[in-house]
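Deadline looming. Please check this record:
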Amino acid sequence: MKKYQKVILWVAAVLAVIFFGLAYLKNYFTVTAGYIAEKAGGIPAPSAPLTKLKTYGYGWEAWRGADNKNTAEIKGMKTDWAKGLEKAWEIDYLCQGPKAVTWSCPVISGNRLIVPGRDEENDIIFCLDPETGALLWLKKYPMPAEVNYGRGQRATPLIHDGLVYTLSRTGVMHCHALYDGALVWKFDSTKEGAKPHTWGVASSPVLYKDTIIIQVGGASLLFALDRKSGKLIWRSEEGFGSYATPVLIEVKGKTELAVFHRDSVSGFDPASGKKLWNVPWGKNNELNITTPVFDNGKLFITNFNTESGLLDFSSSEPSVLWKTKKFGAHHTDPFILNGYIYGYTGFSGQNSGKFMCLSEKDGSVQWQTGELGWGTCIMAEGLLVCQDNKGTLFLVKPDPKKLVVVTKFPGAMPEVKTRTWTKPVIAQDKLYLRHGNRLLAYKLK
């Protein structure tokens, strides 16, 4: 064989390795990651008769809780988890089939817990008794979807005034009666020109007075629907949507809707859909996922691929106080606490990210650690409840000088073989952990 032929063969071999390597990575990150390793249990028959709706204690009725602060209202929470927590109940049937991964959080109001699931062809809405885990009712409907990161819902449902609102990854909203699951109305955003993104709709619905606002993108960035009838109240201008949930903020005595879409942060009037302001934030391959965090007239924006930064609303138009490339949350909400920002930074595809504390004043890093892996967190009684990608729970005391781990619970979500991306939820003295087809409830008192 001649020398040039050997060179051609070597080059061809290298290119083949690169090609198949990239194909493997693409398959891993968009398909394999969306598969469930654990076999699902069978769906039981619903309990009968149904109990009347009851409102008691405190719930978790939406993506960031009822107060939109990602904070549970629990009092007297147990803070020693060295020997674990007592399990109240567990189910394992939410996702029927390896491609049916559903990432949505459960939502709880009184004696009803709603959690989305999936089989190979249908979206499923399960209603459980939050005390016992017993299935009260379920509704399913055909919903075509690609496999990328699972076919199930990403958006977290919303419960309000006896109704529950769910949003499919294809942009279809259903409103059901919380009592028995009866369909009240349905709205298909794609029939209004909406175009869901590569990995489907993940932005959760937002309640504003008597309207439900959703972000999908396409012919209109936002849609506002009458919460009782599903009638379209207003639609915003066109725009490329994102996976980040909009957030209601108070600016000089007025309520605005801050939307982190594909290449900008924009403010809208939630009553009319009129755009009020716009701050460009750079193109980032549609990876705006993290909900903006608002505190005391300032809005923290973070993204895995571009810069994080802080917007100030003290003037007539929002201004950028600072930006930093040292922090970038993929899809986990940070917290602003007493002048400091706490949260996970880095890519969610592994468990080797960082947990950081930044100065709210200038974005400087106060400390960082790899001890908490990569994960998600909420807040309860002044403490951060963190869960890493392996299902380990941490209780962290916010401290601007150092990491303070109050307690740790390894294996809270046992036998994890894929990433535990769904954040913990606390309601009525219980901690709820959801991963794939499983949902666990732990007692916190």
